[in-house]
Amino acid sequence: SQQGEEDPQALSIQEGENATMNCSYKTSINNLQWYRQNSGRGLVHLILIRSNEREKHSGRLRVTLDTSKKSSSLLITASRAADTASYFCATDAGNQFYFGTGTSLTVIP
Amino acid sequence: DGGITQSPKYLFRKEGQNVTLSCEQNLNHDAMYWYRQDPGQGLRLIYYSQIVNDFQKGDIAEGYSVSREKKESFPLTVTSAQKNPTAFYLCASSIMDYWGGYTFGSGTRLTVV
Predict the structure, then answer these.
(1) B101 touches chain A (CB under 8 A)
(2) In the predicted model, what is the mean pLDDT of residues B92-107?
(3) pLDDT value at position A69?
(4) Among residues B6, B2, B20, which one has the least CA distance to residue B90?
(5) Contact B101 A48 (CB under 8 A)
(6) Percent share of chain A, pLDDT over 70
(7) Nearest to A22 by CA among A77, A72, A88, A76
């Protein structure tokens, strides 16, 4: 399937450290998105990167895309306790996006 | 404020009952989606609609039904044919070219009792 897979499944870091999570997918894409989900809530869109882009920044977020390896990474710099959440990548397939299983990030104060 | 409203937040269903989850958006988005999320898993697409009076099945449509009579509304009915309906249900909407990403509602947690 087109579904992305995030790695690691869970990540625990100290406040102030950087957090990196990865997403791999199986088929060619036009776009890849990253979302955040706080426990028991809906997803919030963080950033979209197009297939012809290699890197995008938004505040403390840095996303890279390597289409030759079919992978993307999300870097959160100078993490805060409020960054504790699950992070999902979503890859497009025609009329919809497929979501991965997510990385659960815990930032310890 | 613009956004998506899902109701109710919690819903309990007895065996053999049909229940309907509400999803309303005031973002003027053309496309709407229903996803199911099980614990520790990703989102799986149930149905989506890109235009009023038209919708398509997603990966796990069996046991579910939808309607799209108005642009703002995309209700999901969980029928008695859905044998394992306990899950967290998320509604989303988007403009057709996705550049702003999906906007999600806050979800409905459905439990079979």
Answers:
(1) yes
(2) 84
(3) 95
(4) B6
(5) yes
(6) 95
(7) A72
